[in-house]
Write a structure and sequence with these properties.
Alpha-Beta Plaits, 2 helices
Length: about 80
């Protein structure tokens, strides 16, 4: 199954241990929320959501982001994270 670019928002700012768990992702903090951004297939996305739950983070939003047609996979700021999370 192909990968898609996703943005996952969690409430607050990640502590050092939680941020380390998502080191393969783009992490930004804005407006009291942490935004995790990366490319996932469906199994990888579900694995990431399980990891967020296991860390007891407050999930706010998950959205698939369109990659502009001129961008190539990997240049949109995402990384390939699959079920190994």
């Amino acid at each position: 199954m192909p990968c898609s670019l996703y943005e996952i928002r969690v409430a607050g700012q990640l502590d050092t241990a939680a941020a380390a768990a998502f080191a393969d992702l783009s992490i930004t903090v804005s407006g009291g929320m942490t935004v995790l951004r990366g490319e996932f297939d469906q199994a990888g996305l579900h694995g990431l959501l399980e990891w967020i739950r296991a860390l007891d983070l407050d999930l706010v939003d998950v959205r698939r982001v369109r990659i502009p047609a001129t961008s190539q996979v990997g240049q949109a700021g995402g990384v390939s994270v699959r079920a190994h999370i």
